[in-house]
Amino acid sequence: MSFPLLGKKQQCFWIAIGQCRLILLLLFFNISPQLPDGQDLPLPPVILGELGKDPQNPTVCFYGHVDVQPAKKEDGWKTDPYTLTEINGNLYGRGATDNKGPVLAWINAVETFRAMPVNFKFVIEGMEEAGSLGLEKLLEEENQCFFSDVDYIVISDNLWLSNKKPALTYGSRGNACFFVEVECGDKDLHSGTFGGIIHEPMTDLIALLDSLVDPTGRIQIPGIYDSVTALTEEERKLYESIEFDLEEHKNNSGVKKFLYGTKEEILLHLWRYPSLSIHGIEGAFHEPGIKTVIPAKVIGKFSIRQVPHMDLSVVKRQVRDKPFLCPNNLKVSMPLGAKPWLADVNDPLFKAARRAIKTVFGEDPDFIRDGSTVPVARMFQTITQKSVMMFPIGAADDGEHSQNEKISRHNYIEGTKAFAAFFLEISKLHRRLHKTSNTETNNC
Ligand SMILES: [Zn+2]
Protein backbone atom coordinates (compact mmCIF):
# COMPACT_ATOMS: atom_id res chain seq x y z
CA MET A 1 0.00 0.00 0.00
CA SER A 2 1.53 3.31 -0.92
CA PHE A 3 1.16 6.68 0.75
CA PRO A 4 0.35 9.80 -1.20
CA LEU A 5 3.40 11.42 -2.74
CA LEU A 6 5.08 13.76 -0.27
CA GLY A 7 6.79 15.68 -2.98
CA LYS A 8 8.51 15.11 -6.24
CA LYS A 9 11.41 13.33 -4.66
CA GLN A 10 9.74 11.56 -1.77
CA GLN A 11 7.43 8.64 -1.43
CA CYS A 12 6.19 6.89 1.66
CA PHE A 13 5.32 3.21 2.03
CA TRP A 14 4.05 0.92 4.74
CA ILE A 15 5.63 -2.45 4.82
CA ALA A 16 4.92 -5.20 7.31
CA ILE A 17 7.83 -6.61 9.23
CA GLY A 18 6.80 -9.41 11.56
CA GLN A 19 4.40 -8.02 14.15
CA CYS A 20 5.37 -4.46 13.40
CA ARG A 21 4.46 -2.01 10.70
CA LEU A 22 7.43 -0.09 9.47
CA ILE A 23 7.11 3.20 7.67
CA LEU A 24 9.54 3.48 4.82
CA LEU A 25 10.18 6.93 3.52
CA LEU A 26 11.85 6.69 0.16
CA LEU A 27 13.83 9.74 -0.83
CA PHE A 28 14.74 10.15 -4.46
CA PHE A 29 17.56 12.62 -4.54
CA ASN A 30 17.99 14.29 -7.84
CA ILE A 31 21.77 14.16 -8.03
CA SER A 32 22.20 12.85 -11.54
CA PRO A 33 25.73 12.66 -12.91
CA GLN A 34 25.90 13.53 -16.60
CA LEU A 35 26.97 10.97 -19.17
CA PRO A 36 29.33 12.08 -21.99
CA ASP A 37 26.31 12.43 -24.32
CA GLY A 38 24.70 14.91 -21.89
CA GLN A 39 22.11 12.44 -20.58
CA ASP A 40 21.38 12.43 -16.84
CA LEU A 41 22.12 9.21 -14.99
CA PRO A 42 19.58 8.86 -12.16
CA LEU A 43 20.97 7.46 -8.90
CA PRO A 44 19.25 4.66 -7.02
CA PRO A 45 17.10 6.00 -4.14
CA VAL A 46 18.34 6.09 -0.58
CA ILE A 47 15.84 4.47 1.76
CA LEU A 48 15.12 6.16 5.07
CA GLY A 49 12.94 4.23 7.49
CA GLU A 50 11.63 4.68 10.98
CA LEU A 51 9.77 2.71 13.61
CA GLY A 52 8.58 4.17 16.91
CA LYS A 53 8.50 7.68 18.34
CA ASP A 54 8.40 7.11 22.10
CA PRO A 55 10.08 10.14 23.73
CA GLN A 56 11.21 7.90 26.62
CA ASN A 57 13.26 5.75 24.25
CA PRO A 58 16.58 6.57 22.63
CA THR A 59 16.59 6.77 18.85
CA VAL A 60 19.11 4.51 17.15
CA CYS A 61 19.83 5.00 13.46
CA PHE A 62 21.40 2.18 11.48
CA TYR A 63 23.30 2.66 8.22
CA GLY A 64 23.90 -0.04 5.60
CA HIS A 65 24.09 -0.49 1.84
CA VAL A 66 22.67 -2.99 -0.62
CA ASP A 67 24.82 -2.31 -3.70
CA VAL A 68 27.69 -4.72 -4.26
CA GLN A 69 30.97 -5.11 -6.09
CA PRO A 70 30.63 -6.81 -9.51
CA ALA A 71 30.98 -10.61 -9.52
CA LYS A 72 30.96 -13.29 -12.23
CA LYS A 73 31.15 -17.05 -11.83
CA GLU A 74 34.13 -17.13 -14.21
CA ASP A 75 36.08 -14.82 -11.86
CA GLY A 76 36.73 -17.95 -9.80
CA TRP A 77 33.57 -18.35 -7.71
CA LYS A 78 32.76 -21.93 -6.70
CA THR A 79 29.02 -21.07 -6.62
CA ASP A 80 26.78 -18.67 -8.51
CA PRO A 81 27.61 -15.33 -6.84
CA TYR A 82 23.97 -14.19 -6.99
CA THR A 83 22.42 -17.33 -5.48
CA LEU A 84 23.02 -17.54 -1.74
CA THR A 85 24.50 -21.01 -1.18
CA GLU A 86 25.29 -22.68 2.12
CA ILE A 87 28.37 -24.89 2.29
CA ASN A 88 29.69 -26.20 5.62
CA GLY A 89 28.01 -23.52 7.68
CA ASN A 90 29.06 -20.64 5.43
CA LEU A 91 26.64 -18.60 3.32
CA TYR A 92 28.33 -17.75 0.02
CA GLY A 93 27.19 -14.97 -2.30
CA ARG A 94 28.06 -11.46 -3.41
CA GLY A 95 27.02 -9.06 -0.68
CA ALA A 96 26.74 -11.83 1.96
CA THR A 97 28.97 -9.86 4.32
CA ASP A 98 29.28 -6.55 2.42
CA ASN A 99 26.64 -5.52 3.18
CA LYS A 100 23.33 -7.30 2.59
CA GLY A 101 23.86 -9.87 5.38
CA PRO A 102 24.32 -7.26 8.14
CA VAL A 103 21.41 -5.18 6.75
CA LEU A 104 19.12 -8.21 6.99
CA ALA A 105 20.46 -9.05 10.45
CA TRP A 106 19.33 -5.61 11.68
CA ILE A 107 15.88 -6.10 10.16
CA ASN A 108 15.71 -9.56 11.79
CA ALA A 109 16.71 -8.04 15.13
CA VAL A 110 13.86 -5.50 14.82
CA GLU A 111 11.45 -8.36 14.01
CA THR A 112 12.16 -10.10 17.32
CA PHE A 113 10.43 -7.36 19.34
CA ARG A 114 6.72 -6.90 19.85
CA ALA A 115 7.48 -3.55 21.47
CA MET A 116 10.80 -2.05 20.51
CA PRO A 117 12.89 -0.76 23.45
CA VAL A 118 14.27 1.97 21.15
CA ASN A 119 12.99 4.18 18.36
CA PHE A 120 14.61 2.71 15.28
CA LYS A 121 15.63 4.53 12.12
CA PHE A 122 17.67 3.38 9.19
CA VAL A 123 19.49 4.69 6.15
CA ILE A 124 20.06 2.16 3.37
CA GLU A 125 21.80 3.32 0.25
CA GLY A 126 22.72 1.80 -3.10
CA MET A 127 25.80 3.80 -4.10
CA GLU A 128 28.34 2.90 -1.38
CA GLU A 129 30.62 0.92 -3.67
CA ALA A 130 30.73 3.93 -6.00
CA GLY A 131 31.71 6.41 -3.29
CA SER A 132 28.24 7.05 -1.74
CA LEU A 133 27.37 9.61 -4.41
CA GLY A 134 24.56 11.82 -3.17
CA LEU A 135 24.67 10.62 0.46
CA GLU A 136 26.42 13.71 1.82
CA LYS A 137 23.80 15.97 0.24
CA LEU A 138 21.02 13.83 1.69
CA LEU A 139 22.54 14.00 5.20
CA GLU A 140 22.85 17.77 4.95
CA GLU A 141 19.28 18.17 3.71
CA GLU A 142 17.83 15.80 6.32
CA ASN A 143 20.03 16.87 9.24
CA GLN A 144 17.36 19.09 10.78
CA CYS A 145 14.52 16.69 9.91
CA PHE A 146 15.11 12.95 9.80
CA PHE A 147 18.30 13.07 11.93
CA SER A 148 17.16 15.75 14.39
CA ASP A 149 15.93 13.26 17.03
CA VAL A 150 18.56 10.60 16.41
CA ASP A 151 20.74 9.89 19.47
CA TYR A 152 23.08 7.22 18.16
CA ILE A 153 24.29 6.08 14.73
CA VAL A 154 25.48 2.53 14.11
CA ILE A 155 27.25 1.38 10.95
CA SER A 156 27.72 -2.33 10.22
CA ASP A 157 29.86 -2.21 7.10
CA ASN A 158 33.21 -3.64 8.11
CA LEU A 159 34.74 -6.81 9.54
CA TRP A 160 36.26 -8.11 12.76
CA LEU A 161 40.04 -8.17 12.92
CA SER A 162 40.01 -11.89 13.73
CA ASN A 163 38.10 -14.88 12.38
CA LYS A 164 36.59 -15.73 15.75
CA LYS A 165 36.63 -12.79 18.13
CA PRO A 166 33.99 -10.02 17.82
CA ALA A 167 35.09 -6.41 17.53
CA LEU A 168 33.83 -2.85 17.70
CA THR A 169 35.46 -0.20 15.53
CA TYR A 170 36.05 3.30 16.89
CA GLY A 171 38.27 5.01 14.36
CA SER A 172 39.82 5.10 10.95
CA ARG A 173 42.70 6.99 9.36
CA GLY A 174 42.13 9.63 6.73
CA ASN A 175 43.77 9.88 3.37
CA ALA A 176 45.43 13.01 2.01
CA CYS A 177 46.85 12.71 -1.51
CA PHE A 178 49.47 15.11 -2.84
CA PHE A 179 50.82 15.95 -6.28
CA VAL A 180 54.24 17.60 -6.61
CA GLU A 181 54.86 18.98 -10.08
CA VAL A 182 58.42 19.94 -11.12
CA GLU A 183 58.93 21.60 -14.50
CA CYS A 184 62.03 23.01 -16.22
CA GLY A 185 60.52 24.12 -19.55
CA ASP A 186 57.88 23.34 -22.13
CA LYS A 187 59.57 20.47 -23.99
CA ASP A 188 61.46 17.25 -23.27
CA LEU A 189 65.21 17.38 -23.88
CA HIS A 190 67.95 15.03 -25.16
CA SER A 191 70.36 13.88 -22.46
CA GLY A 192 73.29 14.04 -24.94
CA THR A 193 72.66 17.71 -25.65
CA PHE A 194 71.50 18.95 -22.24
CA GLY A 195 72.54 16.28 -19.69
CA GLY A 196 74.98 17.81 -17.21
CA ILE A 197 74.11 21.47 -17.78
CA ILE A 198 70.54 21.79 -16.49
CA HIS A 199 68.62 21.15 -13.26
CA GLU A 200 66.68 18.06 -14.28
CA PRO A 201 63.09 17.94 -12.93
CA MET A 202 63.26 14.18 -12.32
CA THR A 203 66.44 14.48 -10.24
CA ASP A 204 64.89 17.27 -8.20
CA LEU A 205 61.65 15.35 -7.73
CA ILE A 206 63.38 12.13 -6.64
CA ALA A 207 65.50 14.06 -4.13
CA LEU A 208 62.34 15.68 -2.83
CA LEU A 209 60.41 12.43 -2.55
CA ASP A 210 63.41 10.82 -0.87
CA SER A 211 63.39 13.52 1.78
CA LEU A 212 59.77 12.88 2.83
CA VAL A 213 60.11 9.58 4.68
CA ASP A 214 63.07 7.54 5.97
CA PRO A 215 63.56 3.77 5.63
CA THR A 216 62.15 3.17 9.14
CA GLY A 217 58.82 4.65 8.02
CA ARG A 218 59.29 7.89 10.01
CA ILE A 219 57.90 10.89 8.13
CA GLN A 220 60.59 13.54 7.74
CA ILE A 221 58.38 16.59 7.24
CA PRO A 222 59.15 18.94 10.16
CA GLY A 223 56.15 19.54 12.40
CA ILE A 224 54.04 16.69 11.01
CA TYR A 225 53.88 14.81 14.32
CA ASP A 226 53.36 17.91 16.47
CA SER A 227 49.57 17.65 16.65
CA VAL A 228 49.21 13.86 16.63
CA THR A 229 47.29 12.93 19.78
CA ALA A 230 49.53 11.37 22.40
CA LEU A 231 48.93 7.72 23.28
CA THR A 232 47.19 7.40 26.65
CA GLU A 233 47.61 4.52 29.07
CA GLU A 234 43.91 3.65 28.71
CA GLU A 235 44.29 3.48 24.93
CA ARG A 236 47.49 1.43 25.10
CA LYS A 237 45.70 -1.14 27.26
CA LEU A 238 43.08 -1.66 24.54
CA TYR A 239 45.80 -3.08 22.31
CA GLU A 240 46.98 -5.76 24.77
CA SER A 241 43.97 -8.05 24.47
CA ILE A 242 43.35 -7.64 20.73
CA GLU A 243 43.35 -10.92 18.84
CA PHE A 244 45.59 -10.47 15.82
CA ASP A 245 47.71 -13.07 14.05
CA LEU A 246 50.84 -11.17 13.08
CA GLU A 247 52.37 -14.13 11.22
CA GLU A 248 49.23 -14.68 9.16
CA HIS A 249 49.07 -10.98 8.32
CA LYS A 250 52.70 -11.12 7.20
CA ASN A 251 52.11 -14.23 5.09
CA ASN A 252 49.08 -12.62 3.44
CA SER A 253 51.17 -9.59 2.48
CA GLY A 254 53.90 -11.66 0.83
CA VAL A 255 56.68 -9.57 2.44
CA LYS A 256 59.48 -11.08 4.54
CA LYS A 257 59.66 -8.59 7.36
CA PHE A 258 57.54 -5.79 8.82
CA LEU A 259 59.00 -2.57 10.22
CA TYR A 260 57.90 -3.62 13.71
CA GLY A 261 58.06 -6.92 15.53
CA THR A 262 55.16 -6.89 17.99
CA LYS A 263 51.39 -6.94 17.58
CA GLU A 264 51.02 -3.71 19.57
CA GLU A 265 53.58 -1.78 17.50
CA ILE A 266 52.14 -3.02 14.22
CA LEU A 267 48.56 -2.05 15.14
CA LEU A 268 49.57 1.31 16.58
CA HIS A 269 51.39 2.21 13.38
CA LEU A 270 48.57 0.93 11.23
CA TRP A 271 45.75 2.67 13.07
CA ARG A 272 46.76 5.63 15.21
CA TYR A 273 50.02 6.96 13.75
CA PRO A 274 50.32 8.55 10.29
CA SER A 275 52.13 6.94 7.38
CA LEU A 276 53.46 8.37 4.12
CA SER A 277 53.51 6.31 0.92
CA ILE A 278 55.06 7.25 -2.42
CA HIS A 279 52.90 5.95 -5.27
CA GLY A 280 54.40 7.01 -8.58
CA ILE A 281 55.73 9.59 -10.99
CA GLU A 282 53.64 10.83 -13.89
CA GLY A 283 55.73 11.84 -16.88
CA ALA A 284 58.55 9.39 -16.10
CA PHE A 285 59.73 7.04 -18.85
CA HIS A 286 58.46 3.65 -17.67
CA GLU A 287 58.35 1.39 -20.71
CA PRO A 288 60.83 -1.44 -21.44
CA GLY A 289 64.01 -0.46 -23.29
CA ILE A 290 66.07 2.71 -23.37
CA LYS A 291 65.05 6.29 -24.02
CA THR A 292 67.63 9.05 -23.40
CA VAL A 293 65.07 11.67 -22.59
CA ILE A 294 65.05 14.35 -19.93
CA PRO A 295 61.33 14.87 -19.15
CA ALA A 296 60.46 18.56 -18.96
CA LYS A 297 57.70 17.99 -16.43
CA VAL A 298 57.17 15.26 -13.86
CA ILE A 299 54.51 14.88 -11.17
CA GLY A 300 55.31 12.92 -8.02
CA LYS A 301 52.37 11.37 -6.20
CA PHE A 302 52.34 10.55 -2.51
CA SER A 303 49.75 10.23 0.21
CA ILE A 304 49.57 10.55 3.95
CA ARG A 305 47.24 8.38 6.02
CA GLN A 306 46.36 11.07 8.53
CA VAL A 307 45.24 10.70 12.13
CA PRO A 308 43.61 13.12 14.59
CA HIS A 309 44.57 16.06 14.89
CA MET A 310 47.29 16.53 12.31
CA ASP A 311 47.83 19.85 10.60
CA LEU A 312 48.41 19.06 6.93
CA SER A 313 49.14 22.66 5.97
CA VAL A 314 52.75 22.00 7.04
CA VAL A 315 53.12 19.49 4.19
CA LYS A 316 52.57 21.97 1.36
CA ARG A 317 54.68 24.60 3.09
CA GLN A 318 57.60 22.29 3.82
CA VAL A 319 57.62 20.78 0.32
CA ARG A 320 57.49 24.20 -1.34
CA ASP A 321 60.40 25.39 0.79
CA LYS A 322 62.82 22.65 -0.33
CA PRO A 323 65.93 24.66 -1.29
CA PHE A 324 67.32 22.42 -4.05
CA LEU A 325 64.34 23.03 -6.35
CA CYS A 326 64.85 26.79 -6.76
CA PRO A 327 65.51 27.07 -10.52
CA ASN A 328 62.61 24.82 -11.55
CA ASN A 329 58.90 25.54 -11.28
CA LEU A 330 57.30 23.69 -8.41
CA LYS A 331 53.60 23.23 -7.70
CA VAL A 332 52.17 21.29 -4.76
CA SER A 333 48.51 20.36 -4.59
CA MET A 334 46.27 18.14 -2.47
CA PRO A 335 43.52 16.74 -4.75
CA LEU A 336 42.06 14.56 -1.98
CA GLY A 337 41.90 15.24 1.75
CA ALA A 338 39.68 12.64 3.39
CA LYS A 339 39.75 13.21 7.13
CA PRO A 340 40.16 10.58 9.86
CA TRP A 341 37.30 9.45 12.09
CA LEU A 342 37.56 8.80 15.80
CA ALA A 343 34.86 7.95 18.33
CA ASP A 344 34.95 7.85 22.13
CA VAL A 345 35.02 4.26 23.39
CA ASN A 346 33.47 5.47 26.66
CA ASP A 347 30.34 6.65 24.85
CA PRO A 348 27.12 4.80 25.89
CA LEU A 349 26.99 3.35 22.35
CA PHE A 350 30.18 1.39 22.89
CA LYS A 351 29.29 0.40 26.46
CA ALA A 352 25.94 -0.98 25.31
CA ALA A 353 27.43 -2.84 22.34
CA ARG A 354 30.17 -4.30 24.54
CA ARG A 355 27.58 -5.68 26.97
CA ALA A 356 25.46 -7.05 24.13
CA ILE A 357 28.46 -8.85 22.62
CA LYS A 358 29.49 -10.24 25.99
CA THR A 359 25.96 -11.59 26.53
CA VAL A 360 25.72 -13.24 23.11
CA PHE A 361 29.30 -14.28 22.32
CA GLY A 362 30.47 -14.80 25.91
CA GLU A 363 33.52 -12.56 25.58
CA ASP A 364 34.45 -8.89 25.40
CA PRO A 365 34.98 -7.51 21.91
CA ASP A 366 38.26 -6.16 20.61
CA PHE A 367 38.23 -2.40 20.27
CA ILE A 368 39.78 -1.80 16.87
CA ARG A 369 40.44 0.91 14.33
CA ASP A 370 40.89 0.79 10.59
CA GLY A 371 44.10 1.84 8.84
CA SER A 372 42.07 2.76 5.75
CA THR A 373 39.53 5.52 5.41
CA VAL A 374 35.83 5.10 6.28
CA PRO A 375 34.25 8.19 4.68
CA VAL A 376 30.72 7.28 5.75
CA ALA A 377 31.54 7.26 9.48
CA ARG A 378 33.27 10.61 9.25
CA MET A 379 30.43 12.02 7.12
CA PHE A 380 27.73 11.00 9.64
CA GLN A 381 29.78 12.32 12.57
CA THR A 382 30.64 15.66 10.95
CA ILE A 383 27.19 16.46 9.58
CA THR A 384 24.90 15.14 12.32
CA GLN A 385 27.26 15.67 15.30
CA LYS A 386 25.89 12.43 16.78
CA SER A 387 27.80 9.51 18.33
CA VAL A 388 28.85 7.03 15.65
CA MET A 389 30.00 3.44 16.11
CA MET A 390 30.90 0.65 13.73
CA PHE A 391 29.44 -2.69 14.88
CA PRO A 392 30.61 -5.42 12.48
CA ILE A 393 29.37 -9.01 12.51
CA GLY A 394 31.49 -10.39 9.65
CA ALA A 395 34.73 -12.30 10.32
CA ALA A 396 38.15 -11.25 8.99
CA ASP A 397 38.15 -14.07 6.43
CA ASP A 398 34.76 -13.23 4.86
CA GLY A 399 36.41 -12.01 1.67
CA GLU A 400 34.50 -8.80 1.02
CA HIS A 401 35.03 -7.58 -2.56
CA SER A 402 36.69 -10.92 -3.34
CA GLN A 403 35.67 -14.19 -4.96
CA ASN A 404 33.64 -16.55 -2.74
CA GLU A 405 32.50 -13.81 -0.37
CA LYS A 406 30.65 -15.33 2.59
CA ILE A 407 29.27 -14.81 6.04
CA SER A 408 29.07 -17.76 8.39
CA ARG A 409 25.65 -18.94 9.56
CA HIS A 410 27.01 -18.63 13.12
CA ASN A 411 28.02 -14.98 12.67
CA TYR A 412 24.75 -14.14 10.95
CA ILE A 413 22.59 -15.63 13.71
CA GLU A 414 24.72 -14.56 16.69
CA GLY A 415 25.18 -11.14 15.06
CA THR A 416 21.40 -10.76 14.83
CA LYS A 417 21.10 -11.68 18.51
CA ALA A 418 23.85 -9.17 19.36
CA PHE A 419 21.96 -6.40 17.54
CA ALA A 420 18.76 -7.29 19.44
CA ALA A 421 20.68 -7.37 22.74
CA PHE A 422 22.18 -4.01 21.82
CA PHE A 423 18.71 -2.45 21.55
CA LEU A 424 17.96 -3.58 25.11
CA GLU A 425 21.31 -2.43 26.50
CA ILE A 426 21.31 1.01 24.87
CA SER A 427 17.73 1.54 25.99
CA LYS A 428 18.62 0.70 29.63
CA LEU A 429 21.79 2.78 29.58
CA HIS A 430 20.15 5.75 27.91
CA ARG A 431 17.23 5.80 30.37
CA ARG A 432 19.63 5.56 33.31
CA LEU A 433 21.77 8.41 31.97
CA HIS A 434 18.69 10.46 31.24
CA LYS A 435 17.35 9.88 34.74
CA THR A 436 20.69 10.90 36.29
CA SER A 437 20.93 14.08 34.23
CA ASN A 438 17.28 14.94 35.08
CA THR A 439 17.95 14.43 38.80
CA GLU A 440 21.06 16.63 38.53
CA THR A 441 19.08 19.35 36.78
CA ASN A 442 16.34 19.20 39.43
CA ASN A 443 18.93 19.51 42.18
CA CYS A 444 20.37 22.68 40.69
ZN1 LIG B 1 30.42 -2.17 2.26
Automatic annotation (TrEMBL):
A GO CC annotation recorded here is:
cytosol
Q: Give the molecular function GO annotations.
A: dipeptidase activity; metal ion binding
Q: To which species is this protein native? A: Bubo bubo (Eurasian eagle-owl)
Keywords from the named record: Hydrolase, Metal-binding, Protease
Record-linked CDD domains: M20_dipept_like_CNDP
UniProt record, GO biological process: proteolysis
Q: Matching InterPro entries, A to Z? A: Cyt/Met_Dipeptidase, Peptidase_M20, Peptidase_M20_dimer
Protein name (database record): Carnosine dipeptidase 1
Per UniProt, residues of the Peptidase M20 dimerisation domain are 172-321
State if Protease is listed as a keyword. Answer: yes
